[in-house]
Specification:
By secondary structure, the protein is of the alpha/beta class. The protein has helices at 11-23, 47-55, 108-120, 145-158, 172-178, 192-198, 215-227, 255-262, 271-275, 281-290, 317-344, and strands at residues 2-5, 27-32, 38-42, 60-64, 84-86, 89-91, 97-101, 125-127, 161-165, 181-184, 205-208, 233-237, 267-269, 295-299. The structure holds phosphoenolpyruvate (PEP) and manganese (II) ion.
Length: 345
């Protein structure tokens, strides 16, 4: 349930409400907002009695049960967008965010060259996998720790923040030492041990939609991370599995506005994995901007034909520059609509 305090309720009033929540056997999960404090409550007990009593407590405007099965990530819990600051980027804020880089970190030369080029073209976050989930056990599995070190070096040289995948709960602490955002890949969206561990990793999380996961399942997975203590979660649509074979996956573009209606978490679109083919990445990136995503994550490689993974969908550096240039007008419109949204709110 959530307890929405009156605007400018005093600290004493908030503290007293928290005390009463405890007396009913519930736990305060989180307190968000400054001017208007919203208290998230978890636990099992007599909800009706608790709600009635809290509603009559000084400083409380409304006490409500959240009807969605995902509680803390739902729009019912929080109407304004979650904003997540990483490096010089704010995800969910007033700028459309571009994360770009190779599928896998392959060498110092490859990651440095890509990082410098994508930073110059307007990206603020560098992607690159050090731990790679591969369909075949015989394919390149990633540089692991050495790859993380190279990413940190690239961050130092360019000022880009780093997003990189963590595949197992036992690697979370290691990856969190180097990464600014921990990426959870599609294949791990429902790895609940991993999701629980992310609750205490101290870093923002980008949760990718599973290959055959519904939007509700994606939100339930995000709820795991938030319920375990980490509210800095962003969601990523990366295409889903359908009968269609013309593209690697089917880009569920409508997932973006659907998620924007259901959750306050930022939404990122991954056109690269969604389509699997270089020539289709720019039009889907345009769609990401037009449909109101908070940002995109794109694969870029200095020499895609030599890439150890996902070369066919990786943009060349020149291709990325061109795409970023072409997106400028669309991003200007995106900004205008974000401004209007803020004014309306
Ligand atoms: C990736 O980002 O390189 C990746 C493996 O993505 P996904 O988990 O969406 O397949
Ligand atoms: Mn990839």
């Amino acid at each position: 349930m959530i307890i929405s305090m009156r605007p400018h309720a005093t600290k004493q009033e908030v503290d007293y409400v928290c005390e009463r929540i405890g007396e009913f056997g519930y736990k305060v999960h989180s307190i968000v907002g400054e001017e208007r404090v919203v208290i998230g409550v978890v636990g099992v007990g007599d909800v009706t009695q608790c709600l009635e009593s809290l509603e009559a407590t000084p400083g409380v405007e409304k006490a409500m049960r959240i009807s969605a099965p995902y509680k803390f990530v739902s729009k019912e819990f929080r109407q304004d967008r979650t904003r997540i600051r990483v490096g010089r980027a704010e995800i969910g804020g007033d700028s459309f965010i571009t994360m770009a880089g190779p599928c896998s970190v392959e060498s110092e030369k490859q990651i440095m060259e890509t990082a410098e080029a994508v930073a110059e073209a307007g990206a603020t976050i560098l992607r690159g996998g050090a731990f790679k989930p591969r369909t075949s056990p015989y394919d390149f599995q990633g540089m692991e720790g050495a790859g993380l070190k190279l990413l940190a070096k690239a961050r130092e040289a360019t000022g880009l923040a780093i997003v990189t995948e963590v595949m197992s709960d036992s690697d979370v602490d290691l990856v969190a030492e180097y990464a600014d955002i921990l990426q959870i890949g599609a294949r791990n969206m429902q790895n609940f041990a991993l999701l629980k561990k992310l609750g205490r990793c101290g870093r923002p999380v980008m949760l990718k939609r599973g290959l055959s996961a519904t939007i509700k399942e994606l939100l339930m997975s995000a709820e795991y991370v938030v319920a375990h203590g980490n509210s800095d979660v962003m969601l990523c649509e990366r295409g889903i599995r359908t009968f269609e074979t013309a593209t690697r996956n089917t880009c569920d573009i409508s997932a973006v506005p659907v998620l924007n209606e259901l959750t306050h978490l930022p939404v990122i679109l991954d056109p690269s994995h969604a389509v699997g083919k270089r020539s289709l990445v720019p039009p889907i990136a345009r769609a990401a901007v037009a449909v109101g995503a908070d940002g995109m994550i794109v694969e870029v490689h200095p020499c895609p034909e030599k890439a150890v993974s996902d070369g066919a969908q990786s943009l060349t550096i020149e291709g990325f520059r061109k795409m970023m240039h072409e997106l400028e007008g669309y991003i200007a419109l995106w900004k205008e609509s974000r401004q209007e949204e803020l004014v309306l709110a």
